[in-house]
Amino acid sequence: MQFKQDFFEQLEGFYSQVYPLPISNPHWLAWSDDAAKLIGLSEPNDELLMQLSANHAVPGASYYAQVYSGHQFGGYSPRLGDGRSIILGEAFTTKPTGEHSLAWDVALKGAGPTPYSRHGDGRAVMRSAVREFLASEALAALSVPTTRALAVIGSDLPVWRESQETAAITVRLAKTHIRFGHFEYFCHSNEGGKDKLIKLLNFTIAQHYPHLSQDYQGYKAWFTQVVKDTAVLIGHWQAVGFAHGVLNTDNMSILGDSFDFGPFAFLDTFKEDFICNHSDPEGRYAFGQQPGIGLWNLQRLAQALTPVIESDDLVAALNTYQAELVQQYLLLMRAKMGLGLGDLAVNTVDKSTSKLAELQAAQNKADLDFIGRFCAVMQHNMLDYTHTFRALGQLDIGCNNPNIADDIIDRPQFDTWFKDYQQRVVAGNNGKMVEIAAWQTDRNSVNPKYILRNYLAQEAIVAVEEGDNSKLVELHQLLTTPYAEHTDKQHYAERPPQWGQGLIMSCSS
Ligand SMILES: Nc1ncnc2c1ncn2[C@@H]1O[C@H](COP(=O)(O)OP(=O)(O)OP(=O)(O)O)[C@@H](O)[C@H]1O
Ligand SMILES: [Mg+2]
């Protein structure tokens, strides 16, 4: 691995240098070829295993833990920081032209205590390391912005949670580890102040938004971009049916990548208010609350930026959030459902811009309502989110008696909606029936057959506990091509068995 150390060299005072503690008897539990390519690695090998399990030093690494704070479940925690994640530096590859590739922070999550560990042991248990790995790589394969995971390294080091478990390390790759909470810390803490905030802001812009200037105009444009990236991320989650579970501001990447995978869940049965986190009985982070929480978190970030950006400008940027989210969500949902736009949103009589915008807004509203009606059908009939979209995209859209699911309860409700669906699909194709085979192929390319259901992760984890990681490897491989049929792997697409339905995970990780 080839590293640069921009954060370490330029932001002294924003981290503590700390060395990881080794884990005993390290062994590869999982490895992602796709993630490895990002930083120029090919295959796992013994020396790399010793390095990433902290038994040997990594050449070129700096080893540091960043300081940040954050709003957790609505309350402000003034000092958090990487309590169990140690960053090695920014890995990159050199292209044949001599140019550097995009750099990825390499972090060892679960590598031992740091000055920010508070009462924690600095470790991650195997089940949580495996879940982080699978979630990162599954979301990436679904084109959802996310941090990545190179590998999971198991060990025989005992750690205590509710009972004794073993420690593991997830090797995380992130375009940045800068979170909303970094800005909050350098605004609100005694160690912060306007100079530090500006330093962090300039660093973030230089590293990740090089087209923006490091002045007031640049700061405004940057915050507007952060609002957009966050809205886009949450649009993706709502479309793919992903509930993060712990949307604290310290788990919000400044780049709008999915970040920190704890008690997350992909929806099985569609339920708007589905809660996946055992520590969230009131549903602050329930699936349907995510759009609102994204905005709430951005408001906390905006607050932390008030020393640098005028409130009016912050509010103007925040006001773009809803439209950006709706736009992203509609883009993805129209593709999932095959709702073309054809000339629907184009006024052929009056091409004036204001009229066009009005028509588009009306079409957006109509489609949102229409998608909402379909969600109500799924919820009322307790349908599986992923199955339903996959099945919808395979229907013969012209037929009169479609079968979306064998176990549908309220058939008339579905039939009524389906008639409107047929009309909407045809209207979106300029009034003509779609060419069915091509329409179905397109649907299959955006509606996954395989998702990371909690019960599948759980089965893989139990097998690892019993000394067998083959299920984990197989599940990971399958999730890298989630749209393919994989006729020999049908069982992975099934609804959860009784024990695995609506699994709610605990935060203890
Ligand atoms: N076992 C642990 N030991 C020390 N600190 C911990 C431990 N578990 C969590 N923390 C710290 O508690 C805070 C909140 O934890 P949270 O679960 O959001 O993050 P995380 O999963 O540990 O890490 P990250 O956000 O980097 O993915 C963070 O500061 C984290 O470092
Ligand atoms: Mg976290």
Automatic annotation (TrEMBL):
Residues the record lists as binding ATP? G81, G83, R84, K109, D121, G122, R172, R179, D260
What does the record give as cofactor?
A: Mg(2+); Mn(2+)
- Where along this sequence does the record place binding of Mg(2+)? N251, D260
Q: Which UniProt keywords apply?
A: ATP-binding, Magnesium, Manganese, Metal-binding, Nucleotide-binding, Nucleotidyltransferase, Transferase
Active site annotation, chain numbering: D250 (proton acceptor)
Claim: Nucleotidyltransferase is one of the keywords in the record: yes
Which residues does UniProt assign to the signal peptide?
A: none
Return the broad EC class.
transferase
Q: Which reaction does it catalyse?
A: L-seryl-[protein] + UTP = O-(5'-uridylyl)-L-seryl-[protein] + diphosphate; L-threonyl-[protein] + ATP = 3-O-(5'-adenylyl)-L-threonyl-[protein] + diphosphate; L-tyrosyl-[protein] + UTP = O-(5'-uridylyl)-L-tyrosyl-[protein] + diphosphate; L-tyrosyl-[protein] + ATP = O-(5'-adenylyl)-L-tyrosyl-[protein] + diphosphate
Q: What is its EC number?
A: 2.7.7.-, 2.7.7.108
Pfam families with a match to the protein in the record = SelO
InterPro entries attached here? SelO
Q: Which family does it belong to?
A: Belongs to the SELO family.
- Tell me, what does this protein do in biology? Nucleotidyltransferase involved in the post-translational modification of proteins. It can catalyze the addition of adenosine monophosphate (AMP) or uridine monophosphate (UMP) to a protein, resulting in modifications known as AMPylation and UMPylation.
Per its record, how is this protein called by name? Protein nucleotidyltransferase YdiU
